[in-house]
Amino acid sequence: MSNKNTILVDVIPPTMSKEISGLRLNELESLVKTYGGIAVTKVIQKKGMPDYKTYIGSGKLNEILEQNKLADKKSKANLLILNNILKPQQVYNLEEICKKDGIEVWDRIDLILKIFDKHAKSVEAKLQIELAAIRHMGPRIYGMGLELTRQGGGIGTRGLGETNLQIMKRHLRKKEQKIKEKLEHYDLVQENHRQQRRKKDLKTVSFVGYTNAGKSSLLKALTKKDVYIADKLFATLESSVGQLYLPKSEKITLLSDTIGFIQDLPPDLIKAFKSTLSEIIEADLLLHVIDISDPLYESKILVVEDILSELGISQKSKIYVFNKVDMVKDLNKENLRDHFSGFSPVFVSALNKEGFSDLVSLIEERITQLEKTEAL
User: Fold this and answer.
1) What are the pLDDT digits (tens) for 233-267?
2) pLDDT, position 161
3) Is 223 within the bounds of a domain?
4) Are residues 139 and 99 in the same domain?
5) Tens-place pLDDT, residues 79-129
6) Same structural domain, 247 and 105
7) What does DSSP assign to residue 81?
8) How many Cα atoms sit within 13 Å of 44 on the Cβ side?
């Protein structure tokens, strides 16, 4: 994202509080920083209903573009990102208006996909991102209207009179199918690994949580596994698995970390990462890691729980791990224990390893219960 000066726009309902709207925009800015961009302008637009044509509304859009024209060279933006999920035609309409000023337009999902693409290392992750991009961008291509409805019959096309739009649809369907077939191979490899673990009677525990909650830091601190850690959103895209020693039973359990969740992720995007999320789906126990220093931690718990529900695993055995307790003064643990009593809350700090013995004991207790249940 070299030299990408960015205008951030969040269209919110009039009832949303100033605090929540500010935190939403801060998260968008964090996403932009993660990708390498600079936010030069931040705009909050309150609307009861998003504008049918441009989502933001022509008046506010013109105001933003006029202000950008007056900005000095260093502060002039060449990218506009809306912190919302737009319809294909809305993005197309915005692009048509903004391109005159040399400004690209992305919605929230475009930005997330760009970050995914930048951080992906394995072939599997790159394929998953490509699949997610086709599912997100495909409808946008279909929504480009007259630009793609010209006749395309002739050399290189199959049917006389077939439109460019029809050719594009067919091309994307074929590409999606090929990617799915390649991902099935990785699914089989992962399933073989899981079968090997089951033969060795190794139980698996998987971290889940909102992005940047500290899952990778916990995995490294608990298992000495060498994993990439950064104070960035979506620093982890691929699964990492380490071994955790359970002292009472003198057994080993496997601890895995994978992609963090974030609000406003469409189901199609989650489905594209099903292969990576299989560690969570197949786990015996989930550790829901929560950044207790985050003012929005409660709403982020709900985001994670909603995604677990979409994956069909909301009823799986679960422990709430409140992380970063070192960053909170006067933390009322008793209140949190009462409020989340159904999820056996435990309080830890990945930084100074506070609460680790409590967490390991709780994991061992749950694993022992599972083994007893299976033995019946």
Assistant:
1) 555 555 678 889 899 988 889 898 877 888 877 76
2) 56
3) yes
4) no
5) 999 999 998 889 989 999 999 999 999 999 889 888 878 777 778 778 888
6) no
7) E
8) 18
The sheet that has 5-12: what strands, in order across it?
38-46, 5-12, 79-82, 104-107
- What average pLDDT does range 208-228 have in this prediction? 82
**Domain limits for position 137:** 120-179
Check whether residue 296 and residue 166 sit in a common domain: no
Tokens coding 276 = 């990576």
CB count, 10 Å around CB of 2? 5
pLDDT digits (tens, 9 = 90+) for 161-190: 567 777 777 888 898 899 888 888 877 877
pTM of this prediction?
0.79
Torsion angles phi and psi, residue 87, rounded to 5: -80, 155
- In this structure, the chain runs to a length of 376
Distance CA 50, CA 149 (A): 27
> What is the number of domains present in the chain?
3
Print burial letters for 238-277: b (CB count within 10 Å at least 16), e (below 16): bbbbbebebeeeebebbbbbbbbbbbebeeebbbbbebbb
